[in-house]
């Protein structure tokens, strides 16, 4: 069994491995786009479009992880200014908030003040009163927001307006800090240009069920090599919790951005634009909870996709003065990832179109396609493994691909200006049957099965048929791994193992 902090261990990626990825990917794309004979021109255009996206994502990923060694930074362990500790609350169960608050009380730091930022009363007055009673019992501060608006960002801004320390630690209600959290982070602010320090989000319930493990497998890649790579380019961004902020830097950009449901991501753009520095500390200094049911997981992923795409469309980093080239590249790479829903759908329907029409995007033999595609994809997967200590799982890939419909909905929502309310990820499992939420994937499976029979009857077992069959059934398998998360069994939370006295 791997250790829970394996994903934080630094692997220096050999330069020759990165170079080989660039070469193989470039050769693959050149042959697809310019060498082999195009088939149907419209399908060929779609194929080239998807390959451009894949190459963009691959190139930016390799560039990000090409040097994971953290930059040398000023850190003064004796820099111990007062800190306000914010625990954001929006209707979470009191016992979860209490665990986080008690952990905050046990922080090993000279001077800090804890505030429960109470923002659940509009929907649940009883919860609001319970949180205030909890604060009184623990003898900590409680700021109950009387005027709603701005979601979590508005709650934090309200807390900033009613507190005073220059440095503010922020925790979600379920993210329990370790005693040394402030000791390991505040010292970086001895550099007066550091605006925020971000630490990883770790899901302590990752082994509880099928969904929590899949959600965590996805997080490992981001908070492992990707965040370490962004850090060396001064491009790490705030991730909503387990972070410390410099008040003056946040207030310089007008507080946390209230116009975006990914307020942390958007605010980070504005802060970097003003020339501030960011720091990512690759140590597990707090432990939180992954969504435990399929609905909560899907909503969380949709919210992240919607917020990131809004940043791309509304505050496009490419055209924002003050950002460095590396920062522009990193923000664009992170935000554009959520276009993958459209790309996955296109890739999935190309073999289906062949089954029903016989049309292909490229005239190429199965062996030729395998000869150029397999080395490229195998090297990519191997490099991903090296970068993550081989902890990145097939389930993580399936969850990322299978969620294409949520990403598509986010794209449509942003393009048509649909407003979405901020929703807090449930902290308790909402067990149930969520098969209705994977209807697009089920429909795809049914169409593939029907298409296979139609294509076989029309033209027999040809090389083109076998190529498209392999591609379509690979999608079916990946979607099946993802769809398993929607069944009731996947939602069941494992009981903790009790050792007899």
Along the chain, the helix and strand elements come as HEHEHEHEHEEHEHEHHEEHHHEHHHHHH
Cα-to-Cα separation, first versus last residue: 26 Å
Approximate helicity band = 40-55%
State the shape: globular
The number of strands is 11
Mean pLDDT comes to 89
SS element count, helices: 18
Strand adjacency order, main sheet: 4-3-2-5-8-7-9
The portion of residues forming beta strands comes to 5-15%
Q: What structural class is derived from the secondary structure elements?
A: alpha/beta
**Which sheet architecture does the biggest sheet show?**
7 strands, mixed
C-alpha-based Rg, rounded = 24 Å
Return residue spans where pLDDT drops below 50 for at least 5 consecutive residues: 496-501
What's the structural blueprint in terms of helices and strands?
Elements: H1 15-35, E1 37-38, H2 41-65, E2 83-89, H3 94-105, E3 112-118, H4 125-138, E4 141-144, H5 151-161, E5 167-172, E6 176-177, H6 181-185, E7 194-198, H7 210-232, E8 243-246, H8 247-252, H9 263-273, E9 277-280, E10 286-287, H10 294-314, H11 325-336, H12 340-357, E11 362-363, H13 366-387, H14 394-402, H15 404-415, H16 439-459, H17 463-483, H18 488-491
Parallel strand pairs: 2-3, 2-5, 3-4, 7-9
Antiparallel strand pairs: 1-11, 5-8, 6-10, 7-8
Helix pairs in contact: 1-2, 1-13, 2-7, 2-11, 2-12, 3-4, 7-14, 10-11, 10-15, 12-15, 12-16, 12-17, 14-17, 16-17
